[in-house]
Amino acid sequence: MNMNNRKWGADVLIILAGVLLDQFTKHLAVLYLKGQAAVVLIPGVLELRYLENRGAAFGILQGGKVIFLIITPIVLLAAAYVLIRMPDGGKYRILHFLLDCIIIGAVGNMIDRIRLDYVVDFIYISLIDFPIFNVADMFVSIATVAAAMLLLFGRRYRDEDFSFLSLKKNGSSEVPLCGSGDEEEEKTEEGEKTEESGQEDGNG
């Protein structure tokens, strides 16, 4: 129980800190960038430019608020399920952190959609004319790519490392059928009879 509490405590703190960071940066963007000219941080490379995004990350699927308000809770429930079942420590630590980051991004942008009806974006990479994004988008995108690379190309994980996702108890591949207990008792009785007959032959 103590281990579970520590595990959940770390996850909750990371998620809370990430969401607060995302919301704080968006608040600053509204205060200092809304209605203002773009702020050039690195000429020809990076700018801060205010945008009200009514779509998904990087401006795709504009006007799909209802879709996102349906999909996001499903994603969060799936992520929470994996987080609850996933062991703590060792090779799972990095997966915990990456999953926390995905949850941070999903929650951060969902708060905007519920509260404002749009998502505040403000980071613009002018070097490649990349769509304007925010901190929550960074959390989701970087964590998703990192997790995909780790699972697809890394050699740390095997299929059995994810047996915790199975709905079957104790990792058993079969569900006990009715009467299986009787069969086991019969096998035990047969074994006892065999041992007794062996002892009698030895005494003879």
Compact overview of the structure:
It contains 5 helices and 3 strands; from the N terminus they run αββααβαα. By secondary structure, it is mainly alpha-helical. It folds into 2 domains: 2-170, no CATH class; 178-203.
Architecture overview:
With 204 residues, the chain is mostly helical. It has two domains: 2-170, no CATH class; 178-203. The chain has five helices and three strands. It has a three-stranded antiparallel sheet with strand order 1-2-3. Strand 1 and strand 2 form a beta hairpin. Helix 2 packs antiparallel against helix 3 and helix 3 (93-116) packs antiparallel against helix 4 (135-153). It is globular. 19% of the residues are buried.
Strands of the biggest beta sheet: in what spatial order? 1-2-3
Strand content: 5-15%
As for the number of domains, it is 2
Distance between the termini: 58 Å
Largest sheet: 3 strands, antiparallel
N-to-C series of helices and strands: HEEHHEHH
Q: What would you report as the Rg, rounded to the nearest angstrom?
A: 27 Å
Structural class: mainly alpha
Tell me roughly what share of residues is in helical segments. Answer: 55-70%
Name the assembly state: single chain
Mean pLDDT: 79
> What is the total tally of β strands?
3
What is the number of helical segments per DSSP (H or I, 4+ residues)?
5
